[in-house]
Write a sequence for this structure.
């Protein structure tokens, strides 16, 4: 069965600090897909990134970067030079082709960036 | 704006009642997913439709049902409502391939009193 664990329930940082959100997943499939979503205070879920199990390259998008390590079943998300607008709940999610793409979400990490 | 629309945005109703939540997917997307977000259960997958046909079911109660119409919009019907059904209900759409990301609507906040 698929499972996603985000051990950090809440993180609080001061603006301009770097912060890493951890995500550990479990799956029996060799092909799977990992995602990060952001849920700002307004409530909508915003897609950030998708990564497939065969692509372990790290990715950088502006201040955001993602580190995918199959050896440790982790897909961590780092925000560099955090800003107040980064305050949100961040969800890591997993999907498998055998489950028709349904997303299994972690519990979410509440990130608060203080000015 | 994800391109996925959901109505209504808020819904307040009494126990025992029935409600219908509506979702229109992004243009070109064939697959619709429904999720429930509550404080105790987190984000849970309910059901998926692809081009009008049910494809996968998750933790969906028997009191809940859904369908996807020929124009690809979807409705989630919740009946015999209980206090515990109060939650944020999201619809998401994708092209249908599991490797593609899902785009979420703004959600419908259901409050059962």
């Amino acid at each position: 069965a698929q499972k996603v664990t985000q051990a950090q329930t809440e993180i609080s940082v001061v603006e301009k600090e770097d912060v890493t959100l951890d995500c550990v997943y479990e799956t029996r499939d060799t092909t799977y897909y990992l995602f990060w979503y952001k849920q700002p205070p307004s409530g909508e879920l915003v897609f950030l990134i998708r990564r497939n199990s065969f692509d372990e390259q790290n990715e950088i998008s502006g201040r955001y970067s993602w580190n995918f390590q199959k050896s440790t079943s982790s897909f961590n998300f780092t925000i560099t030079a955090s800003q107040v607008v980064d305050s949100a709940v961040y969800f890591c999610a997993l999907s498998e082709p055998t489950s028709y793409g349904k997303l299994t979400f972690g519990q979410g990490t509440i990130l608060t960036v203080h000015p | 704006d994800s391109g996925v629309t959901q109505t209504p945005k808020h819904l307040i109703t009494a126990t025992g009642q029935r409600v219908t939540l509506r979702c229109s997917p992004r243009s070109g997307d064939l697959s619709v997913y429904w999720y429930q977000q509550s404080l105790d259960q987190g984000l849970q997958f309910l059901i998926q439709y692809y081009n009008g046909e049910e494809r996968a079911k998750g933790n969906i109660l028997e009191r809940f049902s859904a369908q996807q119409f020929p124009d690809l919009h979807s409705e989630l019907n919740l009946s015999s409502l209980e206090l515990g059904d109060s939650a944020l209900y999201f619809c998401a759409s994708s092209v249908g391939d599991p490797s593609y990301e899902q785009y979420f609507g703004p959600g419908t906040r259901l409050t059962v009193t």
User: Anything to note?
Assistant: The two ends of chain A are 41 Å apart (CA to CA). The first strand of chain A starts at residue 3 and ends at 5. The interface with chain B takes residues 33, 35, 37, 43-47, 50, 52, 91, 95-97, 99-105, 107-108 of chain A (CB under 8 Å).
